[in-house]
Amino acid sequence: MMMPSLFCPHKLFMKIGPLSIQPPVLSAPMAGYTNYAFREMLRSFGGVGLIATEMVSARSFLELEKRGANHPSRLWGVREEARPLAVQIWDNDPETLAEFGHRLAFDYRVSVIDLNFGCPAKQIAGRSESGSYLLKTPDRLGRIVERVVQACRPVPVTAKIRIGWTRETINAIEVATAVEEAGAAALTVHGRTAQEMFRGEADWEEIAKIRPHLKRIPLIGNGDVKTVQDAVARLGSFPVDGIMIGRAALSRPWLFRQIEQALSGRPVDPEPTLLEQREILKTHYGLVLERFGPELAVVLMRKYACDYALGKPGARLFRGRISVAQTEEQFLQTLEESFPRDIPF
After folding, report:
1. 51: β partners
2. Taking a C-beta distance cutoff of 8 angstroms, is the pair 282, 27 a contact?
3. What sections of 182-254 are H helices per DSSP?
4. Active-site residue 8, yes or no?
5. pLDDT tens column, 191-237
6. pTM exceeding the 0.90 threshold for the entire prediction
7. Facing residues of 57 across strands?
8. Which residue ranges in the chain fall short of pLDDT 50?
9. pLDDT tens profile 274-325
């Protein structure tokens, strides 16, 4: 049985430089999650206007290259996979980011270079003084954007930020202005401060305050978009040009297709049955297995399996078992025996 349509009669596409993003619903870069296998899962369902990689350290890439070592595993699949594709990069040095961005634009030929100014993790924003740490210095952040834009032109460069470092120092408008003046092609804003991490609720009112201050580039809102209804409501109620979805897609990679159906006025597909979801998880495992082999694939897939089970009956028992699986046999057997069923067991 189909869900009723939740038609949103506007905002069916957006532009990032020369790219037409349709629908205006983007997949967030998530460290440790948005690798090639997960991106292929999203593509298999459809509905994503722009897919992003995990964030990649510009410094690490260049250092590995100088040593003649293999490039970071986070670039696995990037050369060959479908476009459009965004690669998110981080560092705090303009020249390092410019050099890496140039390689991605003209060697890897990616569609979009996204600069991370939003990550609040201690190893990024603390020790490395990158990510959301740079929100403290909008002028410096703007100079970074300007240099990367110069190095990557005509490939569009975008930026992702948070609304500020702390609640007392919210400065998203100032940062957004610096980003646009530096030549960026789009801005994504997560509606929390760096200090808040992922606690509390995303503040879309603060995101909305930015819109009047941007003259030419799209504003993309991010944070707590968990359902089709959330997506339609954000696009319909706030002055954003697009939305970005992160954690919700880990347990429901088909969510983007449902949102695209709603935005275009078509009936929305029902949730896959739990049996169908188990088969989806096995397909996902197969993609990881192909790249990493059975031993590492099991380790990598345990966290995805726990996400797929989120909120389902029997999920606690399943997570307890799948989290200790060591071999392919144990992993697949646990899926067959313990993946959440339509009724508790």
Report:
1. 85
2. no
3. 204-210, 228-237, 248-251
4. no
5. 999 999 999 999 999 999 999 999 999 999 999 999 999 999 999 99
6. yes
7. 90
8. 1-9, 343-345
9. 999 999 999 999 999 998 899 899 999 999 999 999 988 889 999 999 999 9
Per the listing, tokens 């930015």 go with: 210
Which is catalytic among the residues 8, 119, 152, 306?
119
Lookup: tokens for 93: 């040095």
